[in-house]
Amino acid sequence: MVMKLEKALGELMKKLGMNLRTATSQDEKSKIEKNIEKIDNQLVTMPKFQRFLLLSMSGSFTDIHVNFSGTSVFYHLIEIRKIFYVAPPTPENLELYKQFERHEFEDEWIGDVLFFQWV
């Protein structure tokens, strides 16, 4: 999907570039340039990886997090089991997570703050 999106955005950039060359008014050129800038930013910031491998030892754990670049993850467990605790992605919880990432929690752990929301 990443490759398809990158290709589609690249084709759109080419089309906008052609439209920019034929634009007649400054207002039209300005709008096209803004769209080109947005798409260029998307191309620069979108994830460039398609697969990754995560290995962990028995008894290990991962702290509360959002997967990098907002990616989805498929877990295949070869031995034993992995337990996931998930809290609803409400606007309030997402704001709490942002505060947690900015190290704004001094005496509390976010896991305790969200304790009664874990599923």
TrEMBL record:
Coiled-coil segments on the chain, per record: none
Molecular-function GO terms, alphabetical: metal ion binding; oxidoreductase activity
UniProt cross-references to PROSITE patterns, sorted A to Z: JMJC
Keywords of this entry: Iron, Metal-binding, Oxidoreductase, Transcription, Transcription regulation
Domain JmjC: 21-119
Protein name (database record): JmjC domain-containing protein
Lineage of origin: Eukaryota, Metazoa, Ecdysozoa, Nematoda, Chromadorea
